[in-house]
Amino acid sequence: MTTVQGHCDPAFSAVRDVFEQNFADGRELGAAVAVYAGERKVVDLWGGVADRRTGRAWLADTPCFAFSCTKAVTATAALLLAERGAYDIDGPVTSWWPEYGMRGKEGTTAAHLLSHQAGLPAFARPVSAEEAADAPARAAELALQAPEWEPGTAHGYHALTYGWLAGEIVRRHSGRLVGEFVKDEFAGHLDLWIGSPDDVIDRAAKLSAGRRSPQNGADSPRAVGDDNVLERLANAYVDPDSPLNRSLNNPHPGKGGYNNPVVLRAGWPAAGMIATAPALAGFYRDLIAGRILRPDTLTEALKPRANGADRTMLVRSAFGLGYMRPAMTFFTPAAGRQHAFGHTGAGGSIGLGDANAGLAVAYLPNNMGDQLSGDLRAYRITEAAYASLT
């Protein structure tokens, strides 16, 4: 039986109960959860196995690959530069990236890049993990592509290309890659990395394919979606020509999947972050406290820029300037549906902030959920966190 370790304020015992139940029901291999209520770290729990192959235990300082939770951090870097006056979010990209203005992309704005409206959800050719490590080259390649829709007229999740588009905002206006800028400007005190040194990679949890037990039926998308949507998602996932498949699987991480050190060292700025749960929750704590962006900047960034049918994910999604807002792709308890924001990650991870509630939550598992729309582990944890505030 897995022993959950760490600290939990008695008022937030419901979070611990959910976390422990996930292990008891066989939903977890190893995982960590952290919650801040205002400036107080009220939950810091971990448990299980960090590496199924060796049996290495998950420790207090075990970081985990966070997949698309990365996007919120990358977007924050771009927003900080806009706040400083480096560029106009609603101005043309060509004013600072002239090469981008071709093949129907002349009217693209930085806001389009940050809200999945750029029309470039996937590369036009297969890209290797080694090639993906060259961020300037991948941005230049995207600048040469024709968009799949007129920028600004629709939105579709840019699962991986998002990072090199938004990341180019950071690189061109700071002279630094996203990971360098993030560490220099607002995450130097956090165990959070976009581009990880080898010592961080060595202590990171290893991702494992989910081993589902019979009790997990309630965690399937059938609990939150209808059969027609599920069928369309399943078909799109296996169709190599579908936007969903092309967006999620190119670049391919190569041998070892997202445990591949080539990917972890490169720090893909859409899905390459390694962090501990307290560090990711600490990022949201600092963000909602106004220590990274001004409150007015964050308020403006949370206004939905894209809301509705997603051309890539085939369900309703909602995005501000880089942050997910409550929708089918960002399940949020009723108490948070007006103010919660953040980002989910493949396999079940989540980072969430709510300035109105003063709440910051991070949950990072290494047992990958095997459902197309994830499972409900993160939802149940955030639900418990909100309920503990009352």
Beta-strand content bin: 15-25%
Domains (count) = 1
Rounded radius of gyration (Å): 19 Å
Helix content: 25-40%
| CATH-derived architecture | 3-Layer(aba) Sandwich
The count of helical stretches stands at 14
Topology, number of strands:
14
Largest sheet: 7 strands, antiparallel
Helix/strand order, N-terminal first: EHEEEEHHHHHHEHEHHHEHHEEEEEEH
Query: Low-confidence stretches at least 5 residues in length (pLDDT < 50)?
Result: 211-225
Question: Could you state the CATH homologous superfamily?
Answer: DD-peptidase/beta-lactamase superfamily
Kindly, what is the distance between the CA atoms of the first and last residues, rounded to a whole number of angstroms?
32 Å
Instruction: Indicate the mean pLDDT.
Output: 93
**Which structural category do the helix and sheet elements fall into?**
alpha+beta
The rough form would be described as globular
CATH class: Alpha Beta
Q: Find the CATH topology.
A: Beta-lactamase
Plain-language structure description:
This is Beta-lactamase family protein. Residues 16-385 form the Beta-lactamase-related domain. It holds the Pfam family Beta-lactamase. InterPro entries: Beta-lactam-related, Beta-lactam/transpept-like, Beta-lactamase/esterase. The chain is of the alpha+beta class and 390 residues long. It has one domain (5-389): DD-peptidase/beta-lactamase superfamily (Beta-lactamase, 3-Layer(aba) Sandwich), CATH 3.40.710.10. Helices cover 33% and strands 16% of the residues. It is built from 14 helices and 14 strands. The chain has helices at residues 13-24, 70-83, 110-114, 129-132, 135-144, 161-174, 178-185, 198-203, 227-238, 243-248, 261-266, 277-288, 295-301, 377-389; strands at residues 5-8, 30-37, 40-51, 56-57, 64-65, 192-194, 208-209, 273-275, 306-309, 316-319, 341-344, 350-354, 359-365, 367-368. Strands 1, 2, 3, 4, 11, 12 and 13 form a 7-stranded antiparallel beta sheet that branches. A 3-stranded antiparallel beta sheet has the order 5-8-6. It has a two-stranded parallel sheet with strand order 7-14. Strand 9 and strand 10 (316-319) form a beta hairpin. Helix 1 (13-24) runs antiparallel to helix 14 (377-389), helix 2 (70-83) runs parallel beside helix 6 (161-174) and helix 5 (135-144) packs across helix 6 (161-174). The longest helix is centred in the N-terminal third of the chain and has 14 residues, at 70-83. The protein is globular and about 60 Å long. The two termini are 32 Å apart. Residues 211-225 have low confidence and may be disordered.
